[in-house]
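In response to reviewer comment 3 from the previous cycle, which asked for concrete evidence that the modeling workflow produces usable outputs, we include below a single protein chain processed end to end. The sequence was submitted unchanged, and the resulting structure tokens are shown without manual editing.
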Amino acid sequence: MSENDQNGTDGTAQRARSAFQEHVMDPARRAGETMQASGRKMAENSSTIGVAIIDQAQSNAQEAFAAMRAAAQAKDLSEVMQIQGDFLRAQGKRSMDQAREIGELIMRFGRDAVTPSKAE
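The workflow returned the following structure tokens.
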């Protein structure tokens, strides 16, 4: 094989490698990086929701114990019934507020997931 033929073959191979790199390897690498970033974001979002739920559970437990203390110190049954009714009304409102908070977090995370990042 002559030197010109060898150079032509080397040039064709180099162009093929460059094309493969540009059209296959680079997009695959970018896709992998995007998937890793998405996985990290999902983990962060899950953690945020988990912490919010734990905070809500703690608040609910504190309110329940406060109501139990008040009921234990009540002077008669009607006061116990009043404390219990007040607690149930407040807990119903708290539950709705907490569900709304978690729903809003989930919706925000969903919007973030389908909105292209500014880096792209």
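DSSP finds two helices and no strands in the chain. We consider this sufficient to address the reviewer's concern, and the full set will be provided in the supplementary archive.
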